[in-house]
Amino acid sequence: MEPALVAVHNSPSAGVPGVVDIKDASVIGNGGVIFSLNLLVSTDVAAYFVLALAGFMWTLIAISHCVLQQRYVRRRPFVDRPDLAYPPVTIIRPLKGIDLNMRRTLESSFCQEYPAHVEILFAVEDPNDPAIEIVHELMHQYPKAAARVLVGQDNVGINPKINNMLKAFAQAQNDLLWICDSNVYTDPGTLRRSVDLMLDDKRVGVIHHVVFSETPTTFASMLDNAFLGTNHCRMYLAINAVGIASCLMGKSNLYYKSALDSVGGIASFGQYLAEDNMIGQALWRAGWRHAMTGDLARQPVDVSSIAEYWSRRIRWVRTRKYNVTFATLGEPLTESVLLGFLTSWALQYLYMFNAYAVFATFMLCWAGMDMLFFYRINHGPPSSWPWFVLGWVCREVLALPLWVVAILGDVVTDKQRAANILFTGNKGHRGRQDDFLLVLFSQLVRFSDSCQVAPEANTTLGTPFLLSRTTVKNNPICKCTCDLDTPAVGEQLPPQATDDGKRVDSDRCNEEIRDGFGWGYSFLWLKRWIRQAVSLERRLMDAKILKIWRLFGLQPMLGSLKCRDFGGRSFEGR
């Protein structure tokens, strides 16, 4: 007697989903039965996961609207407390060039309704910067304001904003600092409401404000306006309302200088392009909570073309993908088009819903919630509803291809300067800046220290490719400190060095670095953290393991290393 085949069908011809049909085994063997059932179960799990994800996203949308109603529609009034209870504040404004409506944005710092002393420091790199003239006009208009212009630059890393602000941090007279970008306008009561939150809860060490764009003048500006006023703002409020991790942007932040000094000081963050995210994470891990007021960091939109909008969004994703890696990987699943497509597939697969009707309903509901969100946080309609809706549609359609392009590359540009995002793993600051696969693996290992590679332009790059018990300082590409005993910075490597009992020639080390840092250095990284030095290294050096290592692209990724610093100089690994 032939064994029977049990197959489950979810097609209309099979009747009710889940009906079990018995078929002759001559058609498919028992192995096919197991494979079919496993595939079916996997598809069911995927469909239910999509529905769960859709439910989660709609929950976040609901949370964002609740926060919007509580915090921004019903703005918190000033707390009734004596003026002497307010601490003095230093406002730091980094400047470079002329921004849209710059006089209005900078003037907002002079117009803050704050009962205590306010110091305003404008940090400029170039003494001939045209922004200085605007600041001098404002200082003449408000002679009683304690405002100063600080000119000069300290080079502590690749981040130009940190390099520019360092002198202001050094000369700030107050412990409470408000870092506000030059292109941000804030309402007169923003500072007082922010300090009120910090005084009400001593655990709060960071106050930040959500970015909101205004005055779009081009269609590209409308795209940016639609993104910041809906998707970005909505997710920003929802994530911070949940409050399970640090999530902030550096457009407008208040924090204590002493708290920042306790986590390494402002100079230690100069090696990161996304310094705001790294500062927030460091303060969060130090025990300081983050809070938000009902004020907006209003940014006049100045996007002249679609290409410029594309470049701005690319820079955002690329600087975030190494700081919040898993969140960035899952970002497409939070976008309306892809999530709507997957939801329509899941409902059709599980419950025979019409996929086209589901997708259309999903997108209409999503668009309606976004339009309502924008109207409420803007306290009124956009400048043009038709153009705004068209900008919103284009923004949603471009979201997925933009994300793909951003993930596949590492170069970012900012005001005609370019840099290659690389991996860093400094002790105390778990940055993410190099090959994406290594970043994913590093998040699983959760290491806290690694070798650092610093090109001659004082750009700090980190790499988990460690040279065993060797310090290389004299190769023309980079300076690499990789000694397990942590030698002093600047220590010179002698012509011959000892490496695990063997003589190692420094020229050969340099040659190996130029040839790609050598796959063997990766094994020492594993050895250092898994604590199985010799046995693990021997197993990994097996030829079969090496083939797998190369299969995932881990061998050549530093062999073709290319880095352009903000000065435009290039450093290549070959």
UniProtKB/TrEMBL annotation:
<protein>
    <recommendedName>
        <fullName>Ceramide glucosyltransferase</fullName>
        <ecNumber>2.4.1.80</ecNumber>
    </recommendedName>
</protein>
<dbReference type="InterPro" id="IPR025993">
    <property type="entry name" value="Ceramide_glucosylTrfase"/>
</dbReference>
<dbReference type="InterPro" id="IPR029044">
    <property type="entry name" value="Nucleotide-diphossugar_trans"/>
</dbReference>
<comment type="similarity">
    <text>Belongs to the glycosyltransferase 2 family.</text>
</comment>
<dbReference type="GO" id="GO:0006679">
    <property type="term" value="P:glucosylceramide biosynthetic process"/>
</dbReference>
<keyword id="KW-0472">Membrane</keyword>
<keyword id="KW-0808">Transferase</keyword>
<dbReference type="GO" id="GO:0016020">
    <property type="term" value="C:membrane"/>
</dbReference>
<comment type="pathway">
    <text>Lipid metabolism; sphingolipid metabolism.</text>
</comment>
<feature type="transmembrane region" description="Helical">
    <location>
        <begin position="353"/>
        <end position="375"/>
    </location>
</feature>
<feature type="transmembrane region" description="Helical">
    <location>
        <begin position="45"/>
        <end position="68"/>
    </location>
</feature>
<dbReference type="GO" id="GO:0008120">
    <property type="term" value="F:ceramide glucosyltransferase activity"/>
</dbReference>
<feature type="transmembrane region" description="Helical">
    <location>
        <begin position="387"/>
        <end position="408"/>
    </location>
</feature>
<dbReference type="Pfam" id="PF13506">
    <property type="entry name" value="Glyco_transf_21"/>
</dbReference>
<comment type="pathway">
    <text>Sphingolipid metabolism.</text>
</comment>
<keyword id="KW-0328">Glycosyltransferase</keyword>
<keyword id="KW-0812">Transmembrane</keyword>
<keyword id="KW-1133">Transmembrane helix</keyword>
